[in-house]
Amino acid sequence: MAVSATGFSPAVRNLARSKQVDLQSLEELEADVVFDWLYAQTVEYRMRHVDAAGVSIDIAEQVTKIDSARLASKPGEN
Protein backbone atom coordinates (compact mmCIF):
# COMPACT_ATOMS: atom_id res chain seq x y z
CA MET A 1 0.00 0.00 0.00
CA ALA A 2 1.16 3.50 -0.78
CA VAL A 3 -0.40 6.66 0.68
CA SER A 4 -0.23 10.18 -0.68
CA ALA A 5 -1.53 13.52 0.56
CA THR A 6 -1.61 14.94 -2.99
CA GLY A 7 -2.76 11.97 -5.10
CA PHE A 8 -1.04 9.82 -7.73
CA SER A 9 -0.21 10.43 -11.36
CA PRO A 10 -1.64 8.09 -14.02
CA ALA A 11 1.84 6.58 -14.55
CA VAL A 12 2.15 5.77 -10.84
CA ARG A 13 -1.36 4.28 -10.81
CA ASN A 14 -0.43 2.00 -13.74
CA LEU A 15 2.82 0.92 -12.07
CA ALA A 16 1.06 0.27 -8.76
CA ARG A 17 -1.59 -1.81 -10.52
CA SER A 18 1.08 -3.90 -12.27
CA LYS A 19 2.90 -4.50 -8.95
CA GLN A 20 -0.35 -5.09 -7.03
CA VAL A 21 0.22 -2.09 -4.75
CA ASP A 22 -2.88 -0.52 -3.24
CA LEU A 23 -2.95 3.30 -3.53
CA GLN A 24 -4.86 5.45 -1.05
CA SER A 25 -5.15 9.14 -0.41
CA LEU A 26 -4.56 10.48 3.07
CA GLU A 27 -8.27 11.37 3.31
CA GLU A 28 -9.32 7.77 2.49
CA LEU A 29 -6.99 6.19 5.02
CA GLU A 30 -8.66 4.87 8.14
CA ALA A 31 -7.04 4.92 11.58
CA ASP A 32 -7.46 1.17 12.16
CA VAL A 33 -5.43 0.45 9.00
CA VAL A 34 -2.56 2.60 10.27
CA PHE A 35 -2.67 0.93 13.70
CA ASP A 36 -2.52 -2.48 11.99
CA TRP A 37 0.75 -1.38 10.33
CA LEU A 38 2.21 -0.36 13.67
CA TYR A 39 1.15 -3.44 15.63
CA ALA A 40 4.09 -5.77 16.25
CA GLN A 41 2.97 -9.34 15.69
CA THR A 42 6.32 -10.86 16.66
CA VAL A 43 9.25 -9.60 18.63
CA GLU A 44 12.51 -11.42 18.15
CA TYR A 45 15.37 -11.05 20.58
CA ARG A 46 18.74 -12.64 20.06
CA MET A 47 21.73 -12.64 22.35
CA ARG A 48 25.04 -14.38 21.91
CA HIS A 49 27.49 -15.07 24.70
CA VAL A 50 30.78 -16.82 24.07
CA ASP A 51 33.20 -18.13 26.68
CA ALA A 52 36.62 -18.94 25.22
CA ALA A 53 38.26 -21.82 27.11
CA GLY A 54 41.40 -21.80 25.00
CA VAL A 55 42.61 -19.68 22.14
CA SER A 56 45.40 -20.08 19.62
CA ILE A 57 46.35 -17.53 17.02
CA ASP A 58 48.07 -18.60 13.81
CA ILE A 59 50.24 -15.82 12.35
CA ALA A 60 52.09 -16.93 9.22
CA GLU A 61 53.98 -20.10 10.19
CA GLN A 62 54.36 -19.31 13.88
CA VAL A 63 51.63 -20.42 16.32
CA THR A 64 51.07 -18.39 19.48
CA LYS A 65 49.10 -20.10 22.24
CA ILE A 66 47.42 -18.14 24.99
CA ASP A 67 47.33 -19.77 28.43
CA SER A 68 43.88 -19.01 29.89
CA ALA A 69 45.08 -19.79 33.45
CA ARG A 70 47.82 -17.22 33.08
CA LEU A 71 45.33 -14.66 31.76
CA ALA A 72 43.03 -15.29 34.74
CA SER A 73 45.80 -14.71 37.30
CA LYS A 74 46.53 -11.30 38.77
CA PRO A 75 49.68 -9.46 37.70
CA GLY A 76 52.71 -10.57 39.74
CA GLU A 77 51.26 -14.00 40.64
CA ASN A 78 53.21 -15.82 37.88
What's the gist of this structure?
The chain is α+β, with helices and mostly antiparallel strands and 78 residues long.
Topology record:
Elements: E1 2-4, H1 10-18, E2 23-25, H2 31-38, E3 55-59, E4 62-66, H3 68-72
Parallel strand pairs: 1-2
Antiparallel strand pairs: 3-4
Quick check: average pLDDT?
A: 76
Taking Cα atoms only, what radius of gyration do you get, to the nearest Å? Answer: 30 Å
The global form is elongated
Give me the secondary-structure category.
Answer: alpha+beta
Distance between the termini: 67 Å
Low-confidence stretches: none
Oligomer: single chain
Strand order of the largest sheet: 1-2
- Biggest beta sheet attributes: 2 strands, parallel
Helical proportion?
A: 25-40%
Number of helices: 3
Number of strands: 4
Q: What is the ordering of alpha helices and beta strands?
A: EHEHEEH
Q: Which percent range describes the beta-strand content?
A: 15-25%
